[in-house]
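Why does residue order matter? Because the sequence determines the fold. Keep that principle in mind as you read this record.
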Amino acid sequence: LIPAYHGMEEVLSAVVNRHTEPIRVQELADLVHLSHSQFDRRFKQIFQQTPQQYILRVRLNAACHALTHTEDSIAEIAAQTGFADQSHFTRQFRRELSLTPLAYRRKYRDRAD
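Structure:
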């Protein structure tokens, strides 16, 4: 394990394992015994993104997989991947991937098979 990452594996694991539920950054900071601000700085220094950006990325990756590998509705996928609602999910998805979830599904579903 690279020394800079030491201690963060528990945080990364917690995000991956709990991405379907609300995650507070303070909960993640508590895992590594840092204050919220210390944790934010250390996380960004190590991973070049904020904890919130990482959580969003994990959720969007899970959503992309569900969009191309299931028949679940967009609303179901939003709920399954930890988004407050379909509207919030669609806004975040479009902002990050420049496509709506439905357009993503149509574009990449055939490639996933």
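The mean pLDDT is 93.
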